[in-house]
Amino acid sequence: MTTIRLLLDGGALVANWRSLDRLSGSARAGAAVKADGYGFGAVDVTRRLLNAGCRNFFVAHWHEAEQLAALMADDAALSVLHGLAPGEETIARAVGAKPVLNTIGQVARWRAIGGGLCDVMIDTGMNRLGLAEADICDGLLEGLAIDLCMSHLASADEDSGQNDQQRARFDAVRTRVSARRYSLANSAGIMLGAGYHHDLTRPGIALYGGVVRPDMADIIQPVAGIEAQLLQVRQIEAGDTVGYGATFTAPQAMRIGCLSLGYADGYPRALSGIGRFTAGGRGLDVLGRVSMDLVCVDLGAALDLSEGDWVACDFDLRHIAAQTGLSQYEALTNLGQRFERSWRG
Ligand SMILES: *Cc1c(COP(=O)(O)O)cnc(C)c1O
């Protein structure tokens, strides 16, 4: 039992994956489940998407792959995006997932431990992680059993000329790297059209309800809801202040409540004084600063609420992002470990 819960809608998660798979045209959609499934729980997410037919999963670290390896169906594959850093040879062999080889050193390490099926990441202009196009010469990849040759889009959530440039560079890479399958698009990239789909797409944020392009708003369903319990209710008088720094002063007598939710749980401190909760459709405004573990709300619209009652958080990702300056990715991955994560469907 906890006093905060994350309500997760398995039906919406699966519906989002199906929509993204359909939007990927003749390509299949995989799933990025790194960072503990963007905060929702990688095991619970992966299990549901496997049942829905998803067969390609992406994590960042080997320890994340270790947690998921046993779930994989015989025809499902798990890729480790960070590849094979020095010292990871043992865990890589033990887990048996595919490394996504990103550097000349990673390629050499993979060959040195006997190789096998792997993926490669080619940088096409993001200059983050991945082999440079110039690295590909001299037989670097010759003889490697490459399943996915992929690249990653830097600006797919914007109508940027960089998208076309990266696609053109990737199409040139495809003529030089012999792989079973090719993959470029993340969630936003799927919306850029058929030229970006190749064999496999790699959505992450949109699976979890993130709307990173306006044209996704009617397609993607929210997956997560947050609820918190009222720990205390009190009456304050005109002139009383609330919370750290006394940033809220009551203009008149008020009934207020204190909720078991704070910035350590991922409820952004930037929502101090502007966040909103609801109880049966009635709005409860955040009063004063959000603390680490607590936040106070105005109960004026819901005077019947008392200690132990639950209220819902307005956690619309686009709205939160606009209010706080956080990205939707941060809003999700900041969600802490103190929630009871309870799945419906
Ligand atoms: C995280 C990640 C994805 C998923 O991106 P979204 O924007 O969440 O859809 C796809 N590919 C790579 C290489 C990633 O790192």
Features:
single chain; 345 residues; seven-stranded parallel sheet; six-stranded antiparallel beta barrel; elongated; binds pyridoxal-5'-phosphate
Characterise the protein shown here:
This protein has helices at 10-23, 34-38, 42-52, 62-68, 89-95, 104-112, 161-174, 187-190, 317-324, 328-333; strands spanning 4-9, 28-29, 31-32, 56-59, 77-80, 98-101, 118-121, 146-150, 181-183, 200-201, 224-236, 241-242, 248-249, 254-259, 276-279, 282-287, 295-298, 310-313, 340-344. The protein is of the alpha/beta class. Helix 6 (104-112) links the parallel strand 6 and strand 7 (118-121). Helix 1 (10-23) packs across helix 3 (42-52). The longest helix is centred in the first third of the chain and has 14 residues, at 10-23. The radius of gyration is 23 Å and the shape is elongated. It starts with a strand and ends with a strand. The chain binds pyridoxal-5'-phosphate (PLP). Pyridoxal-5'-phosphate (PLP) is lined by residues 32, 34, 81, 152, 186-187, 202-206.
N-C termini distance? 20 Å
What structural class should be given to the helix and strand makeup? alpha/beta
Alpha-carbon Rg, integer: 23 Å
Count of runs of 4 or more consecutive helical residues? 10
Q: Sheet bearing the most strands, described?
A: 7 strands, parallel
Mean pLDDT: 97
**What's the assembly state of these chains?**
single chain
* Low-confidence spans: none
Task: Name the shape in a single word.
Answer: elongated
Number of strands: 19
Sequence of strands across the biggest β-sheet: 3-4-5-6-7-8-9
Strand content: 15-25%
Would you list the SSEs in sequence order as H and E?
A: EHEEHHEHEHEHEEHEHEEEEEEEEEHHE
Give the cofactors and ligands: pyridoxal-5'-phosphate
Helix content: 10-25%
